[in-house]
Amino acid sequence: MNAEQVLSAVAQEVNTCSQCPLHLARRKAVPGEGPANAEIMFIGEAPGFHEDVQGRPFVGAAGQFLDELLEGIGLKRENVYITNVVKCRPPGNRDPEPEELAACAPYLDRQIQAIHPKVIVTLGRFSMAKFVPNAKISQIHGQPFKVHGQLVVPMYHPAAALHQPSLRRVVEADFAQLPELIRRAAEIPETTLEEPPEKQQPKQLSLF
């Protein structure tokens, strides 16, 4: 199957998935959306109320801010692929449980493999932990990591900037790096994660 066929197959499976209890309360599953040849892939945490209603990722207030951030670097939503580590809304927007993350992991892995983006941007700590475990987002946000050949940039979730206005400029500054990261993705060396990332030397993590 080509990339579009893989993404379509994953979406169909997600929409009928019953691998964890989240399917019992969902209105709609939220597989993700975007072009199969997207250069950037954004991975959030889980669908919220509006996403659960529409079956689309990032359509609430955080999604509107994400659209603004994309526009700020010359991109539109239709240029990027957007998904979450968990494909169904947790009740009350609580944090995803380990078994829920595990149930959805194969879907996300197949999406990443199909798209093979130049840059993956993780939005929030749960998606960050998939690639850079045992790290604090406050210490590594905006820093590029090459993990198993895939360039990953952890960032705060847009919702965090809405709840804490002081983070807005931080998120905007992190986003401003993305065009250069895309351009130089192949040049960035593999990151060694044998110790907590925040204790590594900055030269291993910085693009510049």
Give the structure's gist in a few sentences.
Helix content is 41%, strand content 11%. It is an alpha/beta fold and 208 residues long.
Topology:
Layout: H1 3-15, E1 40-44, H2 49-54, H3 61-72, E2 81-84, H4 98-115, E3 119-123, H5 125-131, H6 137-140, E4 145-147, E5 150-155, H7 158-163, H8 168-176, H9 178-184, H10 202-205
Parallel strand pairs: 1-2, 1-3, 3-5
Antiparallel strand pairs: 4-5
Helix pairs in contact: 1-4
Summary tags:
single chain, 208 residues, alpha/beta, Uracil-DNA Glycosylase, subunit E, 10 helices, globular, disordered C terminus
DSSP strand count: 5
- Please trace the helix and strand order, writing H or E for each element: HEHHEHEHHEEHHHH
* CATH fold node name: Uracil-DNA Glycosylase, subunit E
Distance between the ends: 38 Å
Placed side by side, the strands forming the largest sheet appear as 2-1-3-5-4
Rg measurement, Å: 16 Å
What would your notes on this structure say?
The protein is α/β, with parallel strands linked by helices. The chain has one domain (3-205): Uracil-DNA glycosylase-like domain (Uracil-DNA Glycosylase, subunit E, 3-Layer(aba) Sandwich), CATH 3.40.470.10. 41% of the residues lie in helices and 11% in strands. The chain contains 10 helices and 5 strands. Strand 4 (145-147) and strand 5 form a beta hairpin. It is globular, with a radius of gyration of 16 Å. Residues 195-208 have low confidence and may be disordered.
